[in-house]
Specification:
The protein is α+β, with helices and mostly antiparallel strands and about 130 residues long. Helices cover about 35% and strands about 35% of the residues.
Length: about 130
Amino acid sequence: MVNQKIHGDKKLISIEQIMQYADASGDHNPLHLDETFASKTMFGKRIAHGMFVLSLIAEIMNKSFPNEWNDSGSLNIKFRAPVFLGDEVVAIGELRSSNDASIIYSVKVINQDGIEVITGDAILSS
């Protein structure tokens, strides 16, 4: 059965998560880890890794379609806004189309202010 809407749990972005992601990914860009450096950028403070935030979409797709997502899942997304430490974000998907060849969800990650920080499509191919 294909659910019309899927969503994850709200996640509060912490420095511990950012540091763990930096270590796991090898991405130690000071934009994510150094407040002094980040304060001089266009963002004005540290931001979460985009791929870390994107993983929230992969999480809801994998939870809803564990075998299919691992076998044939793909994403077509755009990063729209930064996610800061202390932000609370949630991934949401809404069924856009379903047929014998594919299932497509419009997906997004939104923050506590309702700002869409990531938008796009998650596609499962048969």
